[in-house]
Amino acid sequence: MTPSRRGLTLGLLVCVTAVAFEGMAVVTAMPAAAADLGDQELYAWAFSAVMIPQLFAIAAAGRVADRTGPVRPLLVGLGLFAVGVVVAALAPTMLILLVGRFIQGLGGGAVNLCLMVVTARAFDPAERARIMTWYSACWMMPSFVGPGIAAWVTEHLSWHWVFWLILPFVGLGLAFMASGLRQLPPRTDADAPGDPVPLHAAAAVAIGLALLQAAGQRLEWLSLVWLVVGLALLVLNWRRLMPRGYSPAAPGLSAVVMVRLLTSGTFFGVQSFLPLMLTTRGTPLLRAGLVITLASVGWMLGSWLQARPWLRLSRDQIIVAGAVSVASGAALVAVAAWVPASDLLLTTVGFATCGLGMGLQSASTNLATMQLSSEAELGRNTGSLQVGETAGNALFVGIAGTVFAALNPIAATQVTFGTQMTLLAAVALLAIAASKRIGFVENHSLTV
Question: What is the pLDDT of residues 391-403, one digit of tens each?
């Protein structure tokens, strides 16, 4: 491997680490941030404020990547992500924190999309499965130490410092991969697909998701207006962001996108409220962070398994196994949510099982999308996959937030969190059905 290729690989891994640390550490620190800043009714927005702009950024970055290559949108994304981190770190109010999170979402969406496009163009199919394992390792390394570090920093310094810890990773990643990015062959408009994703459709879907969450957070008559308008924006524009021939019930790429949407929505919906559920029951923040960490161990294990040549399964069968694992784990967490006296072990095992499923399906849906896409539409279809993931995250975190806003003032905590987790487990069952519609996708790891 040449020095520039090594630098590119290392830089990609460091960038993944930066985004992963931001996600895992902030989940742990958010209960303390909400307690400090107030406006706890906006708690779910701290996550949706990242996910919703990500959707637009993914579509925009995919369009630019198909026309000029992934380097330019990657650099813009890294810059926006860093600015958002600084704004959040300095936030004196929950509203300013949400602004910072919004900017992080714009940058993070572009970065996530471009990392996948760079991977597809810089590595051959057999290498990609190994790269996905390394990416998962970089997601999981912050997960092992991130929640614990975030909890310690929050308790001994301030939650603000959790954000400051992210910035060095951004600079290091850019420095390492600069030489390798310069050697990627440029693309021209002649290489681009004839019908790129319309950016107004991406903006409309993002606004629709925001309106749906706004409707759920304020349960009043005006919320019905936001609900109707939000649903209309989604229905009218969703298909334009998807691969050619998309239908929610179709096989192939359509089914791959639906699995990613439903499993990711389940996992991150559970993850967003699990620390709050545990700390509400008196579990120390460090121990709640450990539950998140062990789920990350499961994710890493799943990602490692999907790349093993002795795992004699086709790529689509691995995706089915991942969906089943996510659904099974979410069901265990739901049982624990309904029974406050249940041992913490039940919650831990359940969420770790969810993580195992995410490791299997996340890497495998990325690889399936690369294999089922032409070179000209790689950016668009990768964007569609990530738009599905982001929309699923925003939608189901928003639904979980609606349940919390509606039940928390009037119901026992086990009813509030039990209802949340049961609904999310039901969503994962739909993912199993979608995974069985994908059809055969070759597993190139078997040829290594």
Answer: 888 788 878 888 8
Name the residue with tokens 């659904």: 327
Residue type at position 121: R
Per the structure, the complete domain to which residue 356 belongs is given by 3-447
> Span 145-155, mean pLDDT?
74
Read off the pLDDT band of 91 (50, 70, 90): confident
* Angle made by CA atoms 316, 303, 139, in degrees to the nearest 5: 130
List Cα–Cα distances, 409 to 62, 200, 225, 402, 406, in angstroms. Answer: 42, 38, 24, 12, 7
Pick from 65, 85, 392: nearest CA to 256:
392
Average pLDDT for residues 59-74, to the nearest whole number? 82
> Distance (Å, rounded) from C-alpha 21 to C-alpha 28?
11
Q: Is 252 left (phi over 0), alpha (psi -120 to 50) or beta?
A: left
Residue 44: per-residue pLDDT: 65
Give residue for tokens 């519609």: 437
Q: Supply the pTM of this predicted model.
A: 0.76
27-41, 103-117, 256-270, 420-434: segment of lowest average pLDDT? 27-41
CATH number, domain with residue 174: 1.20.1250.20
Tokens at 215, concatenated: 């409707």
Structurally, how many domains does the chain consist of? 1
